[in-house]
Amino acid sequence: MTALFDLRTVFLVGACTATLGAAAFMGLARIYRPAATAMRHYALALAFMALGLTSLALRGILPDWLSYPGTNLGVSIGVVLTTDATLRLFGRTQPAWSLGVQAGALALLWGWLGSDPGGVTHRILATSVVQGCWSSACVLAIRRSDGWGRQPYVRTLATFFTGYATVHLLRGVATVSGAPSAAGGVFAPSPAQIGFGLLFALSPIALAMIVQMMLHARISGELHRRATTDELTGLHSRRHFFDLSRERLRGNHAAGTVHHLLMIDLDHFKSVNDLYGHAVGDRALRHAAQVLKKALKSAGLLGRYGGEEFCALIRSASVGDANRTIDELRRALEAAPMRAGPSTIVLTASIGVVQVVDAESLERFLVHADHCVYRAKTQGRNRVVRFGEMLAEPVV
Question: What is the mean pLDDT of residues 267-293?
Answer without folding.
Answer: 94
